[in-house]
Amino acid sequence: MILSDGITVYETSEDRPMPIATVDPTSGETVQKFEPHDPSEVQRRLARAQQAFEHLATTSFAQRAGWLRAAADLLEDDLATAADMLVTEMGKPIAQAEAEVRKCAKAMRFYAEHAEAFLADEPLAAPESVGARRASAGYRPLGVILAVMPWNYPLWQVVRFAAPALMAGNAGLLKHASNVPRAALYLDTLFERGGFPAGAFSTLLIGAGDVDAVIRDPRVRAVTLTGSEPAGRAVAATAGAVVKKTVLELGGSDPFVVMPSADVAKAAEVAVRARVQNNGQSCIAAKRFIVHTDVYDEFATVFAQRMSALVVGDPRDRATDVGPLATEGTRRDLAELVDDAVARGAEVLTGGSAPDRPGWFYQPTVLAGLTPDMRIVTEETFGPVASLYRATDREDALRIANGTDFGLSSAVWTDDAEEADWFVRHLDAGAVFVNGMTTSYPELPFGGIKNSGYGRELAAAGIREFCNLKTAWRG
């Protein structure tokens, strides 16, 4: 099985499991190795999760909200150590690591405040038409939910599942990416420290090859995965075979469209942040920049200049804009996409290579003159590499934007209200951001279409995904 966010990273190589280890991406040195949980420990944790669920199902929203707020307080108290952990394990620049920790605490408090309203029983209209005095629908927890999570947001990806799942009364099991074990073990205790019953949320230190058996265990009622398309297919196939629900977020190749009426300088400024956030390793980072021909040259010049001015370096240095990629394989795959494009005639406006230094760094890169025979046109780039396209009109821009198997999010820059509405209607994506960059908020539903997956996280939709919508008829 392949478990990653948006890039193919195999966790097995010639049937040898990938070690569970913290490897510093700034140097490539192994910091610490961890022993995987043996089968008996996995069974113990499954049993404990089921027991915790049975207890959680009897608790009130107020009780769970108190525990979740306490866990959020603990997370913020741990800000310095938690952020340093993210820097060490996947090279996230320190300011972004701190922002991730704070964002997690915010999401936890959001669900503590709103879960009860999101899951309140809903009276159904005209009950007399079905012979009832009253009819209603209510949301009830499913049970133990398995989360298979990637390394690029080691805390946020997990918390945006865990917070709503726990507030709904479910228990959670985490199979995290093998290169962020410290984050996985931190989360293993966080919610219990906040007051949740032992086992309400716990980590399984297992390899990808052990996931199938956990999905098939009758105590696991559903699965959520953020990762690569092949990983999603594998998990969905197993879950489907045993009739269990899945939510899949499988990455994207998000378009960033710029039209002539837009503030081009502002669009170019935001485009840089949209591309290199998290060192470019984000499923919702803008990756394909589609610019109307009337403003293409202006945008390309400013965009390339700003990308070339970014500081690549030590992620603990607050002057650094772009740190290393998280794994050696991630950088190798990214370099292969760039090299393939250049070999087939792409123009390098800036960057295009890895710097000569230890660690898994890659220069911020802008490519233009792309043609359909280049792999980068159809595959997701997971790193600080931007693809630049020229569009003749809005119909051409839409054609390029929708010309991908992915459909996670999108952005369009225009000061024409009718044009903005037109793009919102016609872009094939789970979200459209107008005159801004895509990001995730606890308040907004998040998820994609096409090969980007299905189901939603966050907002009311996210907490309802792992609930049984139970209809009640009263005569």
From TrEMBL:
CDD domains the record matches: ALDH_SSADH1_GabD1
Highest taxon above the source species: Bacteria
Residue ranges of domain Aldehyde dehydrogenase in the record: 18-471
Gene3D superfamilies: Aldehyde Dehydrogenase, Chain A, domain 1 (3.40.605.10), Aldehyde Dehydrogenase, Chain A, domain 2 (3.40.309.10)
InterPro entries, sorted: Ald_DH/histidinol_DH, Ald_DH_C, Ald_DH_CS_CYS, Ald_DH_N, Aldehyde_DH_dom, ALDH_GabD1-like, GABD/Sad-like
Plastid recorded as keyword: no
UniProt keyword annotations, A-Z: NADP, Oxidoreductase
Record-linked PROSITE patterns: ALDEHYDE_DEHYDR_CYS
TM ranges: none
One GO MF term attached to the UniProt entry: aldehyde dehydrogenase [NAD(P)+] activity
Family: Belongs to the aldehyde dehydrogenase family.
Name under which the protein is recorded: Succinate-semialdehyde dehydrogenase/glutarate-semialdehyde dehydrogenase
Species whose genome carries this gene: Labedaea rhizosphaerae
